[in-house]
């Protein structure tokens, strides 16, 4: 075999190894919480001499397919003779571009950007009075503006639900909350505020739309936060049930009982208080900071109900379920520890 062939073979193997390592690294990102829960349950069940439970860790979010979230937006048809009668406005070229084959196949975010530009140019054209002598055209242009302003919220709705970046960021992730800077929470809060703000103030927010969409697809903090709530709820509910059964026969009357409870308390402190509860505290902060923005989505009449109801299920009801599971777990341990006080 020639040196050139050996070199190519070696390079190909190195590329495969590097790709595999990158894949493993991607799979292992944002796994602090499930690892902590596994460690906690394994240690605690072993100390309590309980049968180990295979608690599900999938925590899958059940969003409907994107197609089911789409809204039909009425088209505004402009007659060609009316179109060519427009004078002295940049709107002419913009409408011509939209009518090309390429212009009709637009990503949801590109469509929203186009619609805002059209509205802005229409308003400026009307305000300039360039076409004021043509009374019929002037009335038509004001009617076009009114119609475009009316359907803009619907196109904004489709930008949210039909953009791959936002849909993935809110519905799908392999990771969970880490409780540190790796969560990219600051970016997540800004991105959500920015996309929601476009509806009411596009002039101030639309320029950052594409950057926010790209950022959301990368950090996916909304999906990771909601998956973390599901994971914690499922783990803690099952552990609370199992440990409560054990506690029903534990009286802490002997020295051996007290020594065992001291070991149990140590495991609880090291693996629950120091690790899991710390992540939970960060999750609570994320929830309360994001809550006003998600409430805006839930209460928005232009968004489809099957979307807003799912957002409410995870951002509000899911948070309540997780908090109740956390509280019940802590209260159970408080009652157990009191037996030896």
Automatic annotation (TrEMBL):
<dbReference type="InterPro" id="IPR021431">
    <property type="entry name" value="DUF3080"/>
</dbReference>
<protein>
    <recommendedName>
        <fullName>Lipoprotein</fullName>
    </recommendedName>
</protein>
<dbReference type="Pfam" id="PF11279">
    <property type="entry name" value="DUF3080"/>
</dbReference>
<feature type="signal peptide">
    <location>
        <begin position="1"/>
        <end position="31"/>
    </location>
</feature>
<keyword id="KW-0732">Signal</keyword>
